[in-house]
From TrEMBL:
Record protein name field: RsmB/NOP family class I SAM-dependent RNA methyltransferase
Organism: Sphingobium naphthae
TM ranges: none
Pfam families in UniProt: Methyltr_RsmB-F
GO process terms (BP): methylation
Family: Belongs to the class I-like SAM-binding methyltransferase superfamily. RsmB/NOP family.
Residue intervals of the SAM-dependent MTase RsmB/NOP-type domain: 112-390
Length: 391
């Protein structure tokens, strides 16, 4: 592909990504993979260049652009070399017309800016994320793994964590295929630390998804006790099973819940759990480093729906906790209505509950919980709170 044809390919992909973000379709990564599957003539350098253009254009535009062309013209305003590639040659975009507008530059959609927690450094939300690893204590100690990964650096305060540079291909290494390490952002590892799961406990991971945090809890429990991974989406839970095998965490039980009738599926666990983790569905504002197009998907109506769902999940999670036990509420969102205010509302609805102080060498206290941000903590952004049921 010529450099100009790569720009046109990026424009075509951005058109598809914009439509998909508007209509709730597949993620950008899926669309990019599909696009190249149908265009075998594109070599690996073409793919990398097109992908970089696409993600640079997504990162640059806070609001969803009208067209892929507008998104790329916006990028060309910052990178004038790109503007010369709009040359009208075969497979290239037409020249940029005088006065033709590019998408506006910005990090956060205007409607969302006032809703983000005040300490959040908005300019840092779109940085590049490193590859963070968690050494799987069920199979190895950090001292065994560190010499196998000389490019990895420790992460202060997280004894089982290692950090590799962005894009490092860990999934091709035996240390990953053998289950000695999991890819897990430091923020998620801090949440697992805040859970303080111990061997022998009964633990419910209520929004387990594909089990990223479940596996961290399994390692903290040293494979002893009861660990139930629940979710309403069968395909997500199905992805946990091979991961648990690889990690040697075979004691994990999975529980598929029926959306809107979750309490029925959880009836046998009432007042049984020492710990319930609610890693709730959320706006994902803390993970824009990895999913920058997520900010083109969010709308005020979708945010309202998520907040309602978070409150509903908290309400059916609370009765599972035994007296004296803990409900750890976490979201990878930095919107106060999903974090600080959600916890305050929970405490107002549920007598006999209180927020524990969280003693971790990271984050900032925020309302009844802790705020982690890319700008302050170098991890994905999260809000989390430890809610304790009175004994
Ligand atoms: C933020 S993701 C969880 C990520 C996962 N804990 C991890 O560490 O990889 C939120 C999950 O909540 C699940 N979910 C949504 N509504 C739910 C409900 N009513 N009950 C249980 N899980 C739900 C979603 O399917 C999704 O997998």
């Amino acid at each position: 592909m010529t450099p100009s044809a790569r720009i046109q390919a990026a424009i075509d992909l951005l058109d598809a990504i914009i439509a998909s973000a508007r209509d709730g379709g597949p993620a950008a990564d899926t669309l990019i993979a599909r696009y190249f599957k149908e265009r075998r003539y594109a070599g690996s350098r073409d793919r990398r260049a097109v992908r970089d253009h696409v993600y640079d254009a997504i990162r640059r535009a806070g609001e969803r652009p009208d067209t892929g062309r507008a998104a790329m013209i916006g990028l060309a305003q910052d990178q004038p070399d790109l503007a010369t590639l709009f040359d009208g040659s075969p497979h290239a975009p037409l020249p940029i017309e005088p006065g033709e507008a590019g998408a506006e530059a910005g990090a956060v959609p205007a409607w969302l800016q006032p809703l983000l927690a005040a300490p959040v450094e908005q300019g840092a939300l779109l940085g590049r994320a490193p590859v963070d690893l968690r050494v799987n204590r069920l199979k190895a100690a950090p001292a065994d793994v560190a010499p196998l990964l000389p490019d990895a650096a420790p992460i202060p305060g997280l004894s089982d964590a290692l950090r590799l540079p962005e894009g490092w291909p860990i999934e091709q290494q035996p240390v990953w295929t053998d289950g000695l390490v999991e890819v897990q952002d430091a923020g998620s590892q801090w949440i697992a630390a805040a859970c303080d799961a111990q061997p022998g406990m009964t633990v419910v991971d209520l929004c387990a998804g594909a089990g990223g945090k479940t596996l961290a809890l399994a390692a903290a429990m040293a494979g002893q006790g009861r660990l139930i991974a629940a979710d309403t989406i069968r395909t997500r839970l199905a992805r946990l099973e091979p991961r648990a095998q690889r990690a040697g965490a075979t004691f994990i039980e999975t529980l598929l819940l029926d959306q809107s009738h979750e309490a029925r599926g959880l009836a046998a666990l009432q007042a049984q759990a020492d710990l319930v983790l609610v890693d709730a569905p959320c706006s994902g504002t803390g993970t824009w480093r990895r999913n920058p197009e997520a900010r083109w998907r969010l709308t005020p109506a979708r945010l309202d729906r998520l907040i309602g769902e978070q409150a509903r999940i908290l309400d059916f999670a609370a009765p599972l906790v035994k007296p004296g036990g803990v409900l750890l509420y976490a979201t990878c969102a930095l919107v106060d209505r999903e974090g600080r205010d959600q916890v305050a509302a929970f405490l107002a609805r549920h007598a006999g509950w209180a927020a524990d102080a969280i003693d971790l060498p990271v984050g900032r206290a925020h309302g009844g919980g802790t705020l982690l941000t890319p700008g302050h903590d170098g991890s994905d952004g999260f809000f989390f709170a430890r809610l304790r049921r009175g004994a």
